UniProtKB/TrEMBL annotation:
Residues 181-238 form the Tudor domain. The gene is LOC117565693. PROSITE patterns: TUDOR (PS50304). Gene3D superfamilies: 2.30.30.140, 2.40.50.90. It comes from the Eukaryota. It comes from Drosophila albomicans. One of its GO terms (cellular component) is cytoplasm. Residues 1-23 are annotated as: Disordered. InterPro entries: SNase_OB-fold_sf, Tudor. This is Tudor domain-containing protein 6-like isoform X1. Pfam families: TUDOR.
Length: 409
């Protein structure tokens, strides 16, 4: 068992030995000219019939072939040009495919590719000592959960109602998401838990399955492409309202939060109105560190209930004495920082897996990682995104540590 409850809360003092421990290929001159000819022609933008399109394409292909024959090319280039000629007989050749081509499948008022939905920022209302009324919508652990503020509830209900009416209008346009737009990062509408939600596509698992992140709920979900619609532009006017939260005054009794501790926490907080006091903030990561209560008298906190159930220890890291001893800085536990919210929202971390948690313990409790800022080299090739995310996190963490040290000196 870890003994995290010392007064200093220092990361080094809290550390214990972990258990067992297709880039694009440059086109030839003739290919580029042919592609430009096809892109600028009326084959893409006009309403000409398919027969006229094919005639023009065949002429373009013959012209390309004649010029290619006059040029000395490598075997590889000749093969590429041959395939290009074959593609030219299709209604729309592969090299001419672009968002403009597929916009015919997208409603005019739908969100474009590359559009980003900003997140709700911390404001003056989110300062230490302020009180909140909130609803927790998703939990990874007591150190990582997502919530909505009560002030946003009416707006979210109205948005869901409008999305339902839009997508269920039998006389309206088809808003089903076209296959071309099913790609990571695209903002769309997802039908999840019987309601339409704003979502960002995370991964494309197959031609008919994806994982999405529901931006107003902090939830990741695996859905079919039939559950995805284009998002109307008007639903981009409000920022994503899901907030990031960390429970205060507790620490896990092991290297990471046990499944029982997290389950008990979920039972105490999910889908109910709760009251909270802000005890710390992280403006860069948009995290609120809150002490949570079931009723408005702010007695008998959720943290106290976890401690009474012997599922958590009492942390002194929020006490004035401990903060003063660390030059006005609150020391945070390693598992308070990792996995980061960004990692979880991109689904780089497998939830509800003790084996995965143990693997992660072996990384983050290694002194090379947290003392010397050495990024891990993971042997599993399918975890390269996690490896990259950890390396990026370490760089950011190192810069913050250097700033803290310079401010102290």
């Amino acid at each position: 068992m870890c003994s995290h409850g010392d007064a200093s809360g220092n990361l080094e003092e809290d550390w214990h030995e972990p258990p067992s421990v297709t880039p694009n290929v440059a086109k030839t001159q003739w290919e580029a000219e042919a592609a430009q000819t096809l892109l600028s022609s009326e084959l893409i933008t006009s309403n000409s019939n398919v027969d006229n399109n094919n005639v023009s394409l065949v002429l373009a292909a013959k012209d390309l072939k004649e010029r290619t024959d006059e040029t000395e090319l490598s075997v590889e280039s000749q093969m590429q040009n041959f395939m290009l000629c074959l593609e030219s007989y299709a209604a729309i050749p592969e090299y001419a495919l672009s968002e403009e081509v597929f916009n015919v499948d997208k409603p005019l008022e739908a969100v474009r590719l590359g559009a980003e939905l900003p997140s709700k920022t911390l404001s003056q209302a989110h300062t230490v000592g302020n009180k909140l009324l909130l609803t927790i919508t998703e939990v990874y652990s007591p150190f990582q959960f997502w919530f909505q503020e009560a002030e946003d509830a009416a707006m979210l209900r109205q948005m869901s109602y409008e999305m339902y009416n839009l997508y269920n209008d039998p006389h309206g346009l088809s808003w089903n998401l076209a296959l071309y737009f099913v790609r990571p990062g695209y903002i769309c509408a997802a039908y999840h838990e019987c309601i339409w939600k704003r979502a960002r596509i995370i991964n494309v698992l197959s031609t008919n399955e994806v994982t999405v992140y529901c931006v107003d709920y902090g939830q990741c979900a695996q859905l079919t492409t039939k559950q995805l619609n284009f998002l109307h532009k008007r639903f981009m006017e409000q920022p994503a309202i899901s907030m990031r939260g960390t429970l205060t005054d507790v620490y896990p009794l092991d290297y990471h939060w046990s499944a029982n501790a997290t389950l008990h926490f979920k039972r105490l907080v999910r889908q109910r109105d709760l009251y909270a006091i802000i005890k710390d903030t992280d403006l860069e990561e948009r995290i609120l560190f809150v002490n949570i209560f079931e009723i408005s008298d702010f007695q008998h906190s959720i943290s106290e209930q976890l401690i009474s159930a012997r599922l958590a220890g009492f942390s002194r890291n929020y006490s004035d004495e401990t903060i003063k001893a660390h030059n006005g800085r609150r020391v945070r536990y390693i598992r308070e920082r990792l996995p980061s919210f960004d990692m979880l929202e991109q689904q780089l971390f497998v939830a509800d897996s003790d084996k995965y948690e143990e693997m992660f313990d072996n990384i983050v409790y290694n002194s090379q990682f947290y003392k010397h800022f050495v990024a891990p080299k993971l042997t599993n090739p399918f975890r390269y995104k996690l490896e990259e995310a950890l390396a990026n996190w370490l760089e950011k963490f190192k810069r913050r540590k250097e700033l803290e040290m310079s401010s102290i000196s």
